[in-house]
Amino acid sequence: AAAAAAKAANPLDQLLSMAFGPSKSEREAAAAEAELEMGAGGAAALAYSPEPPLSTDLELAGKLAAITLGGAYLVKYGELGLSFPFEADPTVASVVFAVPPAVVAYYFLS
Length: 110
Known about the structure:
Shape: elongated
Distance between the termini: 22 Å
Mean pLDDT: 78
Number of helices: 5
Strand content: under 5%
Order of helices and strands: HHHHH
Structural class: mainly alpha
Low-confidence stretches: none
Largest sheet: none
Number of strands: 0
């Protein structure tokens, strides 16, 4: 239960859980917890039935491919719609080089 609480506090795990649903190990842990709560005697009518998967492996592969190809397209052609890649601007340059390390440092130090 403590590991589940620590995992639930991680924003990345929460985001992944929202996007892809609970993992197999989380569903198995929930089933084991429910079994412990029901007790060993006479709870056959309330037996745990696992949830159907939110998406199949093929759907997951399709989503991953779409996200990957869409992201690659945006990285390659997205700058053509913006003006700052073609003009020298020290403010934009400092933001581009300072924000990602700051976000990573904040994530690991908090």
